Amino acid sequence: MSTDAAPAIRLAGVSRHFGEVKALDQIDLEIADGEFFSMLGPSGSGKTTCLRLIAGFDRPTAGRVFILGVDVTTLPPYEREVNTVFQDYALFPHMTVGENVAYGLMIKKVPKAEREKRVAEMLDLVQLPLMAQRKPAQLSGGQRQRVALARALINHPRVLLLDEPLGALDLKLRQAMQIELKAIQQRVGITFIYVTHDQEEALTMSDRLAVFNLGHIEQIGSPAEVYEHPATPFAAGFVGVSNLVRGAVAQAITGSPETFSIRPEKIHFAEPAQAVEADSLSVNGRIRDVVYLGMHTRYLVELDGGSDLTVVQQNLHTTSMDVLAAKGRAVKLVWKREHMRHIEQG
Amino acid sequence: MTATTSAKPPLSRRISTYLYQRPRLILLLLLAPPLIWLGVVYLGSLFALMIQSFFRLDSFTGQVVPDLTLQNYAQLFSEAHLGIMARTTIMAAVVTLFSIILAFPLAYFMARYASPRAKSWLYLLVLIPLWSSYLVRVFAWKLILAKEGVFTWFLNLLGLGGALDRVLAIPGIGGTSLSVSNLGMFIVFVYVWLPYMILPIQASLERVPRSLLEASADLGARPSHTFRTVILPLAMPGIVAGSIFTFSLTLGDFVVPYVIGDSSPFVGLAVYAYQGTSGNIPLAAALTVFPMIVMIIYLAVARKFGAFEAL
Q: pLDDT tens-digit profile of A138-162?
């Protein structure tokens, strides 16, 4: 039975193998009620497979799936209290926007008057009033996305599953929708499970996120935790840009061959001969490449002991002329010990 | 001296450039042959047919007289002609309905479940019958359905010979044997037109993304509900396209009624008889207009019920 203490979603030892291919392997995961949870990973990492197992479009080859404490592993999608926003929106092309949004209520045989009232409310919520009579083909990508959201939310699901819903939108619209989605989630107060390959999206919206790679979870944590304390080299590389320093180079800098990571924005330039403070580490190198990005500049620095480090500096007082002239210059890279992380090698 | 080698580009390149800058000209060049073909051959012959249907036959000389008259159409309302048209329309409707029922599951399997390899085999199996002459296949069915034929032999083997006899005893459906009955004709019609039903339905189902079915299930619809509200409406253009084939081909066919039938006349047979033996081309033409009217009514009804909304 469902209890208030039960997590919205619990996966226990869930695997999905396609023949030899392990799309998901032994996943254990708990997602709390009301949480905005992101599944982040590259394509083929298993995040979408995981979402499909929760929705019921696919069944695990091993393990159990629980929704609000109820074992739903063998239940078909139409008997699960979740709704999905699809990557391609999957709007019914032969129905109007209003009919699309009302679809779930039609199935539950909600009376017409109440249906129309709730459709109007929903279209208001997603800022598409007066669109009920249009066909999906007459809408823009961003509008279709909102209709898909309204069609799912109108059923008051306990958990909303979103499969890369912003993937097809342009950057400006995507950023606006990120904020809007988060606002809607807080307004309706239900669990959102959000699949994305865009780390910025995951960091912006999530309460917690899971980093997927090759069918398993590399790390689960809040955006700040995953960004600042990446648990594995993969997590460090996938969430944000990170420099990984290994072996002899690491030994030369820290005195230990343990691999460590340091974020590009935490590194500062200094004169090669300059002394560094006790709480900092440093290494000498030469700027090999400069990429001017407007708000900031990315430098590729070749270390004297081999290996490269990426450094990002904001262009607070520098112009493009200044930064491009830096190419080939010998520099000292300095960062505080507290900003680097030792990482276990996977 | 300055070496001015003003070599002209080759002719083919100049033509390409000329055409590239005039997209409307290319369109005209490409569309002219099919438009002339359609305009002259298709519409021209149709027009000739319509005109003929308003001429009359001089019963004394046997010559067609080009006086405009409605007497051919008036003749269509005779009891004999109404019977022919009703019989043909009912046969076409039943053949179409049954073709849809038979074709849909196969088309659905091909579109949704078959592997690419299995799909190409199924295409082949559906299309192979069309490689041989339709006349030959109809005669083959005559032998299959004959009293001493394979079909009756097989039913007797299953101990169903008595059941067949009882079915053949039903007036209007049966006859002395399957090969000279309306039931036999129905079987052969469904056989010869089935590919024309399978292919358009399959094509329309192919265009329904899987995510639409998942979305329907996700929103709480059981498979039967998804079938009614999502799959069927989206397959409708294909079903209508297929039934235009089966319906109009059955309406106009004279080979199957001639070879298989119990010699009760069908529209195609009557047209054949009027223009051939009696040389009454105007009446034959008027009778040919009937299937066209039926098709127009059918399409109007299909449109009213939203069959083309998913196009």
A: 999 889 999 999 999 999 999 999 9
Residue B227 touches partner A, C-beta closer than 8 Å: no
Pick B212's closest partner by Cβ from A76, A90, A151.
A90
Q: Any idea where the domains of chain A sit in the sequence?
A: 9-235, 264-338
- Report the mean per-residue pLDDT for chain A: 90
B 184-223: CB under 8 A from A: 209, 211-212, 214-222
Please judge whether B310 and A94 are an interchain contact, meaning their C-beta atoms are less than 8 angstroms apart.
yes
Is B104 among the domain residues? yes
Chain segment A63-116, per-residue pLDDT in tens = 999 999 999 999 999 999 999 999 999 999 999 999 999 999 999 999 999 999
Shared domain check, B185 and B50: no
Judgement on whether residues B125 and B259 belong to the same structural domain of the protein: yes
How far, in Å, CA of B23 to CA of B18, rounded? 10
Domain C-terminal end among B38, B69, B100:
B69
A117 half-sphere exposure, CB direction, 13 A CA radius: 5
User: How many CB pairs lie under 8 A apart between chains A and B?
Assistant: 64
Are A90 and A159 within 8 A, CB to CB? no
Q: Are A137 and A186 in contact (CB under 8 A)?
A: no
Distance of alpha carbon A314 from alpha carbon A293, whole angstroms: 9
**What residues of chain A lie within 8 A of the CB of B214, using their CB?**
55, 57, 77, 84, 86, 90
Angstrom distance (rounded) from CA A278 to CA B152: 102
C-alpha–C-alpha distance, residues B98 and B94, integer Å: 6
pLDDT by residue (tens digit) across B262-299? 778 898 888 888 887 778 888 889 988 888 899 899 88
CATH topology of domain A9-235: Rossmann fold (3.40.50)
Rounded to an integer, what is the distance from CA A18 to the centroid of its chain? Answer: 25
In-domain check, residue B294: yes
Same domain, B198 and B261: yes
Full domain range(s) for residue B42: 29-69
**Res. B1 pLDDT band, cuts 50 70 90:** very low
Residues B276 and B131 in one domain: yes
Strand-strand pairing, A330-336 and A308-314: unpaired
Exposure string over B62-100, b if 16+ CB within 10 A, otherwise e: eebeeeeeeebbeebeeeebeebbebbbebbbebbebbb
| Whether B221 and A90 lie within 8 Å, measured CB to CB | no
**Closest of A224, A232, A284, A300 to residue A261, by C-alpha:** A232
User: What do you get for the CA distance between the two ends of chain B, in Å?
Assistant: 69
| A264-338: CATH, from 2.40.50.100, 1.10.1740.10, 2.60.40.10, 3.40.50.150 | 2.40.50.100
